[in-house]
Amino acid sequence: MLEMTHVPIEGIEVAAYEIPTDEPESDGTLAWDSTGMVLVELSAGGKTGLGYTYGSPACAALIESKLADVVEGRNVMATRECWLAMVESIRNLGRPGICSMAIAAVDIALWDLKARLLELPLVTLLGGVRSSVPVYGSGGFTSYSETRLREQLAGWVTSGIPRVKMKIGRYPHDDLARIRAAREAIGPETELYVDANGAYSRKQALARAEAFHEYGVSWYEEPVSSDDLAGLRLLRNRVPGGIEISAGEYGYDLTYFRHMLEAEAVDVMQADATRCAGITGFLDVAALCDAYHVPLSSHTAPALHMHPGCCASQVRHLEYFHDHARIEAMLFDGIVGPVNGALQPNLARPGLGLTLKREEAERYRPRAE
Q: Which of 305, 265, 252, 312 has its CA nearest to residue 288?
């Protein structure tokens, strides 16, 4: 294995895709009818690794114009060195947002490539602490009819997923009726999560928590803006027992997560590897959560989070997000679906275990006018 200690990165390919949703989607503060994905393929030692982020084509432009020159020629086995070089290179561009998402796509491809070169599944390379990781079904968009809401949530329960999440906050006066319908659809034993995406004021969020408690809501995500750390802490301290406050999906660097933990703003931290600078960044967040004794839950992109999710002791579960689970099954071979409410990596496949369906993916490449 000595020859594998230094393998220079030989090339990088970048592609941007735009995939329509299967029906209009919205949450408490945003509506959308398509999802962008930027995919990176790195080559070295006769192998190719892939990584991606869910974001704007601007991420692809940044990778091509800035990050490609930073990583080409570097040792793929030195993933942390490559990551640090990318972080340093965007100093004058700003860390949060597109820069961290672009770094994420490259970093994920680096880890995938390294594992493929070593002929190991990524979970083995990272060092697993569990063989599988629980998931929760996530969707229940505010654009859904009550019939569609019931159907989707009940479908996850029927498939063996014992926890589900729905969106709230766009039409506050309808939220309680929708939550009641959801509880009727999933039965009394299933965990019910709600996500307001920061749509409420502090007093609205607190008043609704009292009502939600009647229907067994146990997870209250972003009841107020995730930038309002004092508001999150207020809610955490005052909502009925049994309801946990969660936030963190908009974190792009470790300082963001440290501030949230220092403020004692959440019961459960969320992090998204496609935003917080990749698997390297996600594992850093997991270590920080370990130091603060706060559980961690991954945000969306289940195929990317499955392997690191099995390797971080503080990870409670992954978000099996309808939109991304659908896209990943469309564009990749090797996707693993939930079994008994958990995702388990296929140890027979190296790296992330994914292979791009090139012909299918090409259908979603934006065409120049």
A: 312
